Amino acid sequence: MGCLLRRITIAVGLATAVLLFTTDASASGCNLYTAASSCTFNGGVFNVVGPHPTGTGVIDSFLRVQMKGAEEGFNTGARPMLCDGRTCDDKTDPNFTRNLLSSSVPIVTIGGQEYRAFYLDINEPGSNPPNYLTLDQVEVYVSNSPNLSTHTFGAPGWGDIPGATKVYDMETGQPNGNADNFVNLDYLLVGGGSGSGDMVLYVPNSAAFSTNQYVYLYSEFGCGATFTASLTCGNGSGQKYASQAGFEEWWVPGSNTTTQTSHAPEPASLLLCGSGLLLFANRYRRRNR
Fold first, then answer.
1. Taking a C-beta distance cutoff of 8 angstroms, is the pair 255, 206 a contact?
2. Domain boundaries, the chain
3. Above pLDDT 90, what percent of the chain?
4. Could you say which DSSP state residue 54 is in?
5. Model pLDDT for residues 240-252, shown as the tens digit of each residue
6. Cβ distance 132 to 186 under 8 Å?
7. Is residue 69 a contact partner of residue 243, using CB atoms and an 8 Å limit?
């Protein structure tokens, strides 16, 4: 099954001479609690997103994880999959947890820089405060092997999938492991419900995506003892939130998907002139199956 590389170009028209920044979160927590929220960790941009389904095949899921308290997993076609010496919390239906072609991950151009876009839908209770969930770790790898089966874990930033090359890690401070970056998400912010979409992660593009056929995304959610060294579960600023209900799902746009970011994010190293966002132009090339 061949796939054409899909590109999304976001063009932004800006008017006045006010300098704007996105939040550069470093070794700390960041809350995506408003439609204008954005976080930057290690060059990766975490942004609120609201996709609009247009029919069947709305999204193309490649990873589902589910477990109360804390959960971890990565996408692969292998069964079983091991996470840090134990069985991953993946949902094993191959329609929803599978290997992912590099050519299926859309390219987004922001401020002249290319990123790869990964979308996330969370499913938590529809009441406050259990509607919050912590995304505690994200790692992205590439490989020419389709069915790698093991993730290993050390200190933050030491994660590894043997047989793959890491191209992105949410944690900073490697290799001493002192950092603990995390993003808090609000299930109720963008509609709620499975398939509605809650966040998009923009990972800086690199040649490694083009020279490797497959992409692996590893993620941790919640605040169980397995994953949390410095903070406990709770409410309020600087706290992490446990997974409570349904599965969390990573996906890429399917053939019948349109997406709308809440705003055009910029990495902290880029300055934007202007306070008016006048134009978003999103272009998709549908994947040929």
1. no
2. 7-273
3. 49
4. -
5. 888 987 899 999 9
6. yes
7. yes
Measured CA to CA, the distance from residue 253 to residue 168 in angstroms comes to: 21
Residue that has been written with the tokens 């040649």 in this structure: 207
Tokens standing for 112? Answer: 């002249």
State the amino acid at position 5 in one-letter form: L
pTM of the model: 0.80
What does the pLDDT look like over 150-205, one tens digit per residue? 999 865 557 999 999 999 999 875 544 456 889 999 998 886 666 568 999 999 99
Element (H, E) at 208: helix 207-211
**What are the structure tokens assigned to 222, written together?**
């919640």
Determine phi and psi for 208, rounding to 5 degrees: -60, -30
Query: Length of the chain in residues, anyone?
Result: 289
Residues 6+ away with beta carbon under 8 Å from 18: 273, 274, 275
Q: Contact 60/104 with Cβ under 8 angstroms?
A: yes
Cα–Cα distance between 183 and 245 in angstroms, integer? 18
Cβ-contact 197, 49 below 8 angstroms: yes
Look up residue 56 and give its two tokens.
Answer: 């069947």
